Amino acid sequence: MLTQIDLRYFKCFELLHLPLRPLTLLSGPNASGKSSVLQSLALLHQTMRGDEWSTRLMLNGTAVRLGTVLDIVDKVHGRHTCEIGLIDEETAYRWTFTGERWEMSMAVERVVAGDEVLNKTGQLRYLLPPDTTLSLVERVRDLTYLTAERIGPREIYDIEDPQIAPVVGPAGEHAVSVLYSRRDEYVRDELVLPDVPATRLRQVEARMRTFFPGCGLTVQQVPQANAVTLGFRTSDDVDFHRPIHAGFGITQILPIVIASLSARRDDLLLIENPEVHLHPAGQALMGQFLAEVARAGVQVILETHSDHVLNGIRRAVKAEQLPAEQVSIHFFKPRSVDGAQVVSPILDSTGNIDAWPDGFFDQFDKDMNHFAGWD
């Protein structure tokens, strides 16, 4: 498990040390740096997957497209370099990247493990020396990153080779392909819902029913084509129909459910705005579901603007479904000359939070104050 991410001169951060736990929630106003944390991991991921022997950080690839060095390096304190550091159970790793401001990739200037400089020869494999065989590589290389801009309903979905598209993709574009290709594989026992066959397809369908009661789904291959159709229904009494008739909420949540039930123990799952197109009750259920995924050994880092998602996690902790010490909550604030950019409220075993910083899911109370004394 990753226990901390460090950023230096990366985007809006002069220096950030961010603790991570099995379930980490990132919150805060827009443009405060939440997505930047996820993007730093996505950059390492897409570089490792895009070119096994690369000695440059790919700023534009299949996971993220971030532009040039000018867009990546902190404009206030940085010049031509930035650093990304990861700490896991074994050691701490830190990469220093450098490049001209117009370049669309950055050279690996230095790799450090603990206090030891590793890349003295300059040769790298998965951004680490070739003889480094550590779990960190697999965890970052094979992570799943789901952005907020997930694809909507489609008439057909391409079937991809699992070697090319092993995960659902940043927009969920491979989700249906993953579901179809692995439909008969068994879901891990920790995530199996009872009284339902333990196969991937049936468990995904059962999970979707928790968000959308009566939901059913079918995946059928198009004859003589590397494509499938996806059918939904909202009751056992009606026929399956095309995704466009099922509402955007279903197609936005489906990739999250597929990714979660396809993940292996110790996998890393990054999710932006899991609440998109979900009713408040469904958002709370999403928080509880991701807590269950984390309890099953999948590390989850999520960015959310939803107090309902947070409260779903709090309910899971209070119900002893996930220990409080396995949850980190970080509230990001816009950069200012005074004060920390990140505040980390503490969650206790009853689901209560020790302090609520100004702006931390308090808009309801602020709005209600405007009505105080109204007739």
Mean pLDDT: 91
What is the β-strand count? 16
Question: Helicity range of the residues?
Answer: 25-40%
**Percent of residues in β-strands:** 15-25%
Radius of gyration: 21 Å
Low-confidence blocks of residues: none
Distance between the termini: 54 Å
| Outline type | globular
Structural class: alpha+beta
Helix count, per DSSP? 9
| SSE pattern | EEEHEHEEEEHEEHHEEHEHEHEEH
Report on the biggest sheet. Answer: 7 strands, antiparallel
Considering the chains and any ligands shown, give keywords for the structure.
globular, alpha+beta, six-stranded mixed beta sheet, 375 residues, seven-stranded antiparallel beta sheet
Describe the fold and architecture.
- A hairpin with a 2-residue loop joins strand 1 (2-10) and strand 2.
- Helix 5 crosses helix 6 (248-262).
- The longest helix is centred in the N-terminal third of the chain and has 17 residues, at 34-50.
- The strands form three sheets. Strands 1, 2, 4, 5, 6, 7 and 8 form a seven-stranded antiparallel β-sheet that branches. This protein has a six-stranded mixed β-sheet with strand order 9-13-14-3-15-16, sandwiched between helices.
- The model has no long low-confidence stretch (mean pLDDT 91).
- It is α+β, with helices and mostly antiparallel strands and 375 residues long.
- It is globular.
- The chain is built from nine helices and 16 strands.
- The relative contact order is 0.14.
